[in-house]
Give the backbone structure.
Amino acid sequence: MSAPISSGLRFGRWTLFLSTALLAILTASPLVWMISAAFKQPAEIFNSSLIPQHPTLENFSYVFTQLPFVRYILNTFFIAGTITVVALFFHSMAGFAFARLKFPGRDLIFLSIFSTFLVSLPVIIVPLFILVQRLGMVNNYAGLIVPAIFNAFGIFLLRQFYLGIPSELQEAAIIDGASYWGIYWNIMLPLSRPILSALAVFFFLVNWNAFLWPLTITTNQDLWVVQVAIASFQNQYSASWNYIMAASAVVALPTLLLFFFFQRQLVESIKTTGLK
Amino acid sequence: MAAFLFILPDSLGLLIFVGIPMGLALSLGFFSVDGFGGYKFVWFANYIRMLHDPLFLKSLWVTVVYVLVLVPGLYVTGLGLAVLVSQKIPFIAVWRSLFFMPYVVSLVVVGLTWKVMLIDKVGFVNSVLQLLHLPSRSWLGDPNLALGAILLVTIWFLMGYYMIIFLSGLQEIPREYYEAARIDGAGPWAMFTKITLPLLRPTSFFVLLVSTVSAVAGSQAFDLIYVMTKGGPANSTSLAVFYIYEQAFQFNNYGYAAAMASFLVIILLLITIALFALTRGGRFHLG
């Protein structure tokens, strides 16, 4: 009696395994196609084969020699890196204060900060642009960096983290005569290294991929970030898809590397967004 | 008082770069703004113009269709994948990563890649269709198909993100519930509808709220549309946020754009309030 049931079960397992694998490979295939197209010659780009017949590095050498692509990459590294470091510093300070210090109006201030969580850039971009223009931050690094630092999401996550740290640590430090700054710098920051590194990966990724704000705030090509650059190549080299795919592969590479090496951290910071 | 110094940088930054723009978004619509920064109070002129602008009304309709397809689409694919990858399958970590991978690539790269793959006749997608003896289509050139293509790319891009969110919700459901149900003779479908779905309500609420707000606000749509269709063909992919952006930054109609944006802000507020009211603050203690 039991043999047919278990072979039926085994058959079900196999179907499940094969369909999951197939679906997963299909999901990844457009990215594989992009990387393959980056190595193809112009004549071959619309050949539906995923493996280039005559692989070439010519597309990459064009992108790096005929265009100031290195400059765009350095710009983006500088901008995304600065935003990440400053944002983590500010957010950990604020998160610490909201979680561990008592001051008048604390909950009200936190609630109003939290309510900005649902405000997204496309909705406020017109007034934000006008404001930033008034502050003289159009076409410079300040305009690309400063407005992107502030977001409620990071403050919220760090506050949650600091709420979970036992208060004995803080009390002992106060008895030893430590200042608030000492507690933050010597106790809280070292303890929060795991969550800070997870957020660092996430923030860098988001800012490396940012497009709408850099597009709006810069007209000077020297300030272009990679996303704006490849979106504009499209208008200049509309038929040269092999060059555009090579540039896209270069732009996608750091994000894919971050994904392969820090997948756990990325997944953790997304999981914590699915808040309680 | 030292505590205030800790929150000062972030509070000030959020006030200047989110709070004030939000206030301006609601008031700028009553002004006409010229290219030189001159403001003139024009009462409701921008709002009256908005209600008579066929392209804006069309963009609202496109937004409605976009949201009504995207939100359920993401819910079903996200939850479906989460259930799939929580089964005992060999190499499950690999399959899970592959589903999530599109999400880490930028929307500009995603848009460019799909645009090349969807090119008429010779593109990858059409070549595959021809191999299967199916008709090839002008995916981004046909007003009846372009929005569908954008929606499919958006779902492909985001489903891994929602999979992760649902997965963390699924992991919080105690195993014992399923074991007890199995002993009582419940099948997989009964367990899904009687245990999984009810206990996932907080996660479902979060997913619905975030996916609806980001769909209306065009958080993903803007980059894809900018790269893939520029709102065309025949305005069929011109979402409200895209039309507003064009009015502001191509035609310098800042006041008019702000009026339309404030309309979106109010819709977003109503959606948020409605979702909170319907679910009693996301707790879902219904009945």
